[in-house]
Structures are given as C-alpha cells and as structure tokens.
C-alpha cells in the first residue's frame, strides 16, 4: 500500500477559509445559518468552519451540531453492524440554512441518508453541502455546493483525511488499496 | 450478534456498544418524530406465552420506532390453548416470513430451544424465560446506572467499581440472574441479600458476595445502587418466609432503611412493585428511585438490541 499526500495543513486551512467565504457569499452573511457535521470528521470540520466564519464576521455565533446518519443508511444489511454516533442539533433547523459538512464526498449515499435524517428533525429553508474533498464516483444525483478540493480517484484508491483532533496531524492522502 | 438469549453470552465490548447505541436511541425518543427507518421492511413477532404489560409494550414501541412491522402473539386465546406446540407455532410464523422473534416464555430455556432448533432461521431475543434470564431488563438497568453516574459522558464507559446490592427473591428472579452476569462483565461488584430460602443452591458459583442481613450488608458495603426485587407470589408454591410483615421488616426497603442510605444511592426496581412489601412508597417515589427512568430507558435499550441482532452482514450470506 502506498500513500500519496494530496493536501497538507496549510492547504486544508486555505480550503476551509475559501469554503467559509463561499458560504457567507451564498447565504448573504452568517445569519440563520446552522452547520451540521456528519460524524466523525465532518463534525470536527464543521466546528473549524464555524470558527472561521465567526472570525470573518466578528460578533456572530454560528451554531454547530452533528447529524448521525447510521440508521438512515441503505447498506445496514451489507456491512457488519455499525455503531451509531450522537445527533446533536443545537437549535431548531426550521426555516434556516443548514450546511451539511463531511470530509469526503464519494457515492453520495451518506448525503442521501443525511437528507432523510434532516427531514425527521425539521424543515430547513435551504440545505447546502460542504465537503473537504470530492473524489467522484457518484451513485446518486447529488453534488456538493462547496468543495475544498476535487480529487479524481480510482475505485481501488482510498482517501484518508487526517485531522489534528483525531489523528494528531492535518492532511489528506490518497492510498492505493491492493486487495488480497 | 446473532441472538440475545442471555447476558452470559454478551462480551464487555458488545455490552458497551449496545449501551452506546441505546444512548443515541434515547435522543430519538425525545424528538418530535420518534422514528428511524433502520428496520423498514422487517417483520418482528412478539411471542408472549406469559402475561406481560411493560415488556411487551416496551418492545412494541422499540420495534415501531425502528419502522419494523410488528405482530403481537399472545398464547392466551391462540391455538396454544388448543394444545399447539412451540414448534408448530414457530413454524407457522416462519412460513409467514418473520425476520425476528421476541419471546417470553414461562419455561426456562425456551428461547434457547427456539434459537437452536432450526425451526426458524431468525434472530431470537429473550424477553424473559421462566426463572432463567431477562437480558434486556439487565441491559436497561445497566444503562440507567451508567446514565445516573456519568450523564452525558456515559458513552464508552462500563460500570467498573460500582457497588450494586440486589435484594429479595433471587431464587425466582430472572432479572437478578441477568444482572449478575452483565454487571460482572461491566466491572461492577455485586452483592446479593436475601433470606436463605430465596437463594438458589448454586449461588456459591456466581461471581457475587452473599448476605442474609440487609442492615449489615447496607452498612458494610455502602452500595451505589440498591436493587429491590419483586416478591413473585405467582411463582411461590412453598412457604419461603413466615409472613409479609416479617419479610418487609427483614428485607424490605422500609422508610427507616431508605433514610439510612446516602443521598446518592440509587434505588432500582424492575417493576411491578409490591409497595409496602419489598419497597416502601417513600423509597419508590423518592428522587433516588430510578423506576420510571428504567421504563423509559427500556425502549431505548430494546431499540439497540433489535438493531444489533437485525442488522449486519449476516443477510449477505443468503445472497
């Protein structure tokens, strides 16, 4: 297995800052905005994005939550039993702009599940999707509104997003997985 | 996890995973839309050969909140009254395409028989069998203890070092048996207190300490949890203690005994309670009592148990 570094800490910071600016532009400010991260790394990225948004628009507070999609997945019977993660929605999501945040966008099935999960929690005015890396290979008609880096990849490759909070360092690498 | 028959078969990792999933299920139970699609398209049958209100309703709520289709089967009024056997009942259900069976039976070991018989190829959850086990009750008790002790920081934790005193009719109690194995797996120290006549003869092989004197036991061990068991008059075909007043005086959580406990001691009871016999109303209705929390947590824990046995890649092998 060989891993190739694609993004390092400064690239990641720049990408998140750019996404934050794009969110502000599309939302015309930071009002009525809620960031919901998809566990586990999406939640960490959502917190980082919120901190950047708050630094760009001083005096604002952007609520951040986490949205676990395990129970909404369509592959519950094809994988070993998955553990769940907490869903925490700090404010009502009715009539606000919800930005879903995840680390990697791949088949689109996680996002499909997230949209179903959101429906059970309320009725947002707008739902947007922000991802750090888009690796392609969509299986559903879903696309991201804010992308840190487009990362064309082969099916046999794996994208590893490393975050200081979980892995001790920031970076994105692409890894070729050789099947036995 | 293929079946949930006994807490003896549950590993520490499995138990903690199940309790963690129950944490997330409990947040669903607080939402306006109390529904998850995880078991959509699955049919679960609640096969109750013994009367039960809270366990059956709790399982039914859990199944419905996970979007499963639910069939309730009560032996009373069914062909079981005409002499139909467990085998025939189960095979009838299997022919209808059942995905899981939740079974309560008066005979100890009935769920095991069902799981190992080959009559039905579906996961079996034991909802109480005779005087043997009641695993989801023990899991909800453990969940309740963990939640009271650690609150929002419960995830991933066991019950290491927690002192639990289980009091009363151990002999007839499946709740006590399931709790003993699970609490030991999770690292708790368990003490049993009962009249000698209400202790099973093999209790010396269990991972517990045993006492016959409740006052002495409470004073010495200073437990974090006191779990009172129901006196199961329906299973008592013998004189196990002289009379109710004496039982209450010696082994009941009377008002005086309750007031002698530290304020942080949890008082648990699996219900239904015989007020004035094993537990006084003062203890049952106090803030230290977790009785209603146990009922609420039962739904979350049963959702987690159903999720654990019904999802996973086992189905892929049939493709």
TrEMBL record, chain A:
<dbReference type="GO" id="GO:0006355">
    <property type="term" value="P:regulation of DNA-templated transcription"/>
</dbReference>
<comment type="function">
    <text>Also displays a weak uracil phosphoribosyltransferase activity which is not physiologically significant.</text>
</comment>
<dbReference type="InterPro" id="IPR050137">
    <property type="entry name" value="PyrR_bifunctional"/>
</dbReference>
<dbReference type="InterPro" id="IPR023050">
    <property type="entry name" value="PyrR"/>
</dbReference>
<keyword id="KW-0804">Transcription</keyword>
<feature type="domain" description="Phosphoribosyltransferase">
    <location>
        <begin position="5"/>
        <end position="147"/>
    </location>
</feature>
<keyword id="KW-0805">Transcription regulation</keyword>
<dbReference type="Pfam" id="PF00156">
    <property type="entry name" value="Pribosyltran"/>
</dbReference>
<dbReference type="InterPro" id="IPR029057">
    <property type="entry name" value="PRTase-like"/>
</dbReference>
<keyword id="KW-0808">Transferase</keyword>
<dbReference type="GO" id="GO:0004845">
    <property type="term" value="F:uracil phosphoribosyltransferase activity"/>
</dbReference>
<feature type="short sequence motif" description="PRPP-binding">
    <location>
        <begin position="98"/>
        <end position="110"/>
    </location>
</feature>
<comment type="similarity">
    <text>Belongs to the purine/pyrimidine phosphoribosyltransferase family. PyrR subfamily.</text>
</comment>
<protein>
    <recommendedName>
        <fullName>Bifunctional protein PyrR</fullName>
        <ecNumber>2.4.2.9</ecNumber>
    </recommendedName>
</protein>
<dbReference type="InterPro" id="IPR000836">
    <property type="entry name" value="PRTase_dom"/>
</dbReference>
<keyword id="KW-0328">Glycosyltransferase</keyword>
<comment type="function">
    <text>Regulates the transcription of the pyrimidine nucleotide (pyr) operon in response to exogenous pyrimidines.</text>
</comment>
From TrEMBL, chain B:
<dbReference type="GO" id="GO:0016597">
    <property type="term" value="F:amino acid binding"/>
</dbReference>
<comment type="pathway">
    <text>Pyrimidine metabolism; UMP biosynthesis via de novo pathway; (S)-dihydroorotate from bicarbonate: step 2/3.</text>
</comment>
<keyword id="KW-0665">Pyrimidine biosynthesis</keyword>
<comment type="similarity">
    <text>Belongs to the aspartate/ornithine carbamoyltransferase superfamily. ATCase family.</text>
</comment>
<dbReference type="Pfam" id="PF02729">
    <property type="entry name" value="OTCace_N"/>
</dbReference>
<dbReference type="InterPro" id="IPR002082">
    <property type="entry name" value="Asp_carbamoyltransf"/>
</dbReference>
<feature type="binding site">
    <location>
        <position position="230"/>
    </location>
    <ligand>
        <name>L-aspartate</name>
    </ligand>
</feature>
<feature type="binding site">
    <location>
        <position position="134"/>
    </location>
    <ligand>
        <name>carbamoyl phosphate</name>
    </ligand>
</feature>
<feature type="domain" description="Aspartate/ornithine carbamoyltransferase Asp/Orn-binding">
    <location>
        <begin position="160"/>
        <end position="308"/>
    </location>
</feature>
<protein>
    <recommendedName>
        <fullName>Aspartate carbamoyltransferase</fullName>
        <ecNumber>2.1.3.2</ecNumber>
    </recommendedName>
</protein>
<comment type="function">
    <text>Catalyzes the condensation of carbamoyl phosphate and aspartate to form carbamoyl aspartate and inorganic phosphate, the committed step in the de novo pyrimidine nucleotide biosynthesis pathway.</text>
</comment>
<dbReference type="GO" id="GO:0004070">
    <property type="term" value="F:aspartate carbamoyltransferase activity"/>
</dbReference>
<feature type="binding site">
    <location>
        <position position="55"/>
    </location>
    <ligand>
        <name>carbamoyl phosphate</name>
    </ligand>
</feature>
<comment type="subunit">
    <text>Heterododecamer (2C3:3R2) of six catalytic PyrB chains organized as two trimers (C3), and six regulatory PyrI chains organized as three dimers (R2).</text>
</comment>
<dbReference type="GO" id="GO:0005829">
    <property type="term" value="C:cytosol"/>
</dbReference>
<keyword id="KW-0808">Transferase</keyword>
<dbReference type="GO" id="GO:0006207">
    <property type="term" value="P:'de novo' pyrimidine nucleobase biosynthetic process"/>
</dbReference>
<dbReference type="GO" id="GO:0044205">
    <property type="term" value="P:'de novo' UMP biosynthetic process"/>
</dbReference>
<dbReference type="InterPro" id="IPR006132">
    <property type="entry name" value="Asp/Orn_carbamoyltranf_P-bd"/>
</dbReference>
<feature type="binding site">
    <location>
        <position position="271"/>
    </location>
    <ligand>
        <name>carbamoyl phosphate</name>
    </ligand>
</feature>
<feature type="binding site">
    <location>
        <position position="272"/>
    </location>
    <ligand>
        <name>carbamoyl phosphate</name>
    </ligand>
</feature>
<feature type="binding site">
    <location>
        <position position="82"/>
    </location>
    <ligand>
        <name>L-aspartate</name>
    </ligand>
</feature>
């Amino acid at each position: 297995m060989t891993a190739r570094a694609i993004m390092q800490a400064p690239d990641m910071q720049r990408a998140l800052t750019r996404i934050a600016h794009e969110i502000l532009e599309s939302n015309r400010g930071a009002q009525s905005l809620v960031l919901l991260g998809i566990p586990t790394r999406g939640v960490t990225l959502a917190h980082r994005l919120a901190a950047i948004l708050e630094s760009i628009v001083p005096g604002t507070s952007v609520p951040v939550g986490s949205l676990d999609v395990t129970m909404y997945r369509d592959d519950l019977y094809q994988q070993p039993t998955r553990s769940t993660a907490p869903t925490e929605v700090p404010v009502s999501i009715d009539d606000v702009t919800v930005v879903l945040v995840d680390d990697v966008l791949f088949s689109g099935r996680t996002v499909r599940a997230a949209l179903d999960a959101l429906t059970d929690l309320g009725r947002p005015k707008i739902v947007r999707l922000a991802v750090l890396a888009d690796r392609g290979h969509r299986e559903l008609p879903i696309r991201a509104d804010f992308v840190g880096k487009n990362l064309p990849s082969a099916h046999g490759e794996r994208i590893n997003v490393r975050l200081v909070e979980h892995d001790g360092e920031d970076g994105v690498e692409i890894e070729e997985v050789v099947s036995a | 996890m293929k079946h949930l028959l006994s807490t003896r078969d549950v590993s520490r990792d499995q138990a903690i995973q199940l309790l963690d999933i129950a944490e997330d299920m409990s947040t669903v139970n607080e939402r306006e839309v109390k529904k998850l699609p995880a078991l959509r398209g699955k049919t679960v049958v609640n096969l109750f050969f013994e009367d039960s209100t809270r366990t059956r309703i709790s399982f039914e709520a859990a199944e419905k909140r996970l979007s499963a289709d639910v069939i309730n089967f009560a032996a009373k009024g069914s062909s079981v009254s005409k002499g139909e056997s467990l085998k025939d009942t189960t095979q009838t259900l299997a022919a209808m395409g059942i995905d899981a069976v939740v079974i309560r039976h008066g005979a100890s070991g009935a769920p095991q028989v069902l799981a190992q018989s080959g009559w039905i190829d579906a996961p079996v959850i034991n909802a109480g069998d005779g005087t043997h086990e009641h695993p989801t009750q023990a899991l909800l008790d453990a969940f309740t203890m963990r939640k009271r002790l650690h609150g929002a920081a419960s995830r991933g934790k066991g019950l290491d070092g927690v002192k639990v005193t289980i009091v009363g009719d151990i002999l007839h109690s499946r709740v006590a048996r399931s709790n003993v194995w699970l609490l030991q797996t999770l690292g708790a120290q368990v003490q049993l207190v009962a009249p000698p006549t209400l202790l099973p003869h093999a209790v010396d092989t269990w991972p517990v300490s045993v006492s016959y004197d409740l006052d002495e036991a409470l004073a010495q061990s200073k437990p974090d949890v006191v779990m009172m068991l129901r006196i199961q008059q329906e299973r008592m075909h013998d004189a196990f203690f002289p009379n109710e007043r004496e039982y209450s005086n010696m082994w009941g959580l009377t008002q005086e005994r309750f007031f002698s406990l530290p304020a942080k001691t949890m008082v648990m009871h699996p219900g239904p309670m015989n007020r004035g016999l094993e537990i006084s109303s003062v203890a049952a209705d106090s803030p230290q009592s977790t009785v209603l929390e146990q009922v609420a947590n039962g739904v979350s824990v049963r959702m987690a148990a159903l999720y654990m046995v019904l999802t996973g890649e086992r189905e892929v092998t049939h493709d």
